[in-house]
Amino acid sequence: MSTKSFHTIKGYRNNNRGFLNYLCNEFSVTEVEEINTSHIKAYLMNLKMKGLSESYINGIQKNIRSFFNFIVEEGYVAEKRNPVLGLKWMKEPKVLIKTF
User: Fold this and answer.
1) 9, 49, 63, 68: which could form a disulfide with 15 (CB 3.0–4.6 Å)?
2) Torsion of CA 90, 23, 4, 75, to 10 degrees
């Protein structure tokens, strides 16, 4: 296993752990089947209120989407009940590069 894949997996694990801890602490959600779109939106807004950038939050949202796609593939949640289907990406500011 290369170091890049190790760090990627570690980052996914940390992001998902933070998300699941938030759900447990804020909503007392302990089962994957209980998670809905509003829980995920609340978590992402919480990250925004902490001052994290839109691109960073979109990266975390990408991890959450991957997690739920896995959950659906494994049969824990039905495709039509996948809570990430109702999510939109945060709008990222356009970066203007100054030229000479």
Assistant:
1) 63
2) -100
The DSSP-derived string for 58-95 is HHHHHHHHHHHHHHHHTTSS-GGG-GGGG--PPPPPPP
Q: CB–CB of 77/32 below 8 Å?
A: yes
Name 72's Cβ contacts closer than 8 Å, sequence gap at least 6. 78, 79, 82
1-21 pLDDT, tens digit per residue, is: 456 688 888 999 999 999 999
For residues 27 and 39, the answer to whether their CB atoms sit within 8 Å is yes
* Residues 58, 61: Cα–Cα separation, whole Å: 5
Round to whole Å and give the CA distance between 65 and 22. 16
Q: Provide the whole-model pTM.
A: 0.86
Domain boundaries, the chain: 3-86
